[in-house]
């Protein structure tokens, strides 16, 4: 068995042939050197004196790139730049203290970065080292780029003016920025490695716990607002946002950002107060306007109407005893007086619909359409289904004004050929819908201002509706017409009266 083929791999006693080759014995077979030379990994074989005995072609190429001389016969220290610590580890390897070691060092004059993986062998009472040289230049470039990105992220975190903290999957702080330190009056060394309950007030800790639970369950950022009462006694409104960071389903950490929204809430409160005042002023203006309309309409009916009626009677009386030549002139004057009376009645009805007070909403809407809308838009329809015919006067007046303003816009601005009005009460509410097939217009933030008009138009409708706790929706598309939907409370007249009295 000892006389086996010289080309067989070293095994048992025949392994001595390879080590004989390393010692320079000419009679040793040459196949181990060929196998080593063909290996893709740069490899060196060194004796216990640190002298290079074999180097494959990959190692020679790497050493040439690093600016080293041919490795044959050179000592390892002439090729590899060893520090004191690295040299000590190599000595431990040859002395047998360790069987393998791993070093990160450089080669030659160009300081080429490599990772050296060394394994100790013993053969024929000799110690040898098998060294693999791994080029880590690209790895170091990658590490440098990654470190630069990490440093950039750290700088960005520090530059954020809001308190920011990052916690690991156990809820312990791993990073906080300067704003967090200033906000909570803590130092970074006191926070890192600890949980919120260890360093933060109880109210903040509970908020963190609630947000953490929701963020982990939903996978979405969670917001919560809380009030803080620091030692200075000034109440602060804080908006807390927590987001769980995951990768491939695994929790990497939890990021939390806090924002002081005290000024924002104060401004929102002030804005709310101003809106309420504006609503009250607007409602007072609408009420004053309706009262003034009613007064003017009443004055026109009582004063101007009566004067014109008396003048008409006087002219008719004069015409009976006048000469034929004057009779024609008096009849013309009587005609002008009749026209004036009709105009006064129209103006009076426009100012305030007394038919609404006398008969209710449905007859008033029918009168409005027949008297003012149908002469300009013949194809207009109305469907009115009211189980309760009467309700509060304010609600009836609001519903009438909504339909009046909507139909006025249709006649004046939409260039529509057809319009429809639907009025019905269901589920304790009055539902109004006004549709047309006109030109329409683009709706937006200022949809309530009718295009081409100087009056507030639709804004007045919306204000009236909201004053009565109603709802108004407008939909319009250029070229496809407009629809206005309104919902108002519709209590029974007797119940509304009793509720008001109570």
UniProtKB/TrEMBL annotation:
InterPro entries: HATPase_C_sf, HATPase_dom, His_kinase_dom, PAS, PAS-like_dom_sf, PAS_4, Sensor_HK_TwoCompSys, Sig_transdc_His_kin-like_C. It comes from the Bacteria. Transmembrane segments: none annotated. The keyword Signal does not apply. Residues 299-492 form the Histidine kinase domain. GO terms for cellular component: cytoplasm; membrane. Keywords: 4Fe-4S, Cytoplasm, Iron, Iron-sulfur, Kinase, Metal-binding, Transferase, Two-component regulatory system. Its EC number is 2.7.13.3. It is found in: Cytoplasm. Its cofactor is [4Fe-4S] cluster. Member of the two-component regulatory system NreB/NreC involved in the control of dissimilatory nitrate/nitrite reduction in response to oxygen. NreB functions as a direct oxygen sensor histidine kinase which is autophosphorylated, in the absence of oxygen, probably at the conserved histidine residue, and transfers its phosphate group probably to a conserved aspartate residue of NreC. NreB/NreC activates the expression of the nitrate (narGHJI) and nitrite (nir) reductase operons, as well as the putative nitrate transporter gene narT. This is Oxygen sensor histidine kinase NreB. It comes from Ramlibacter albus.
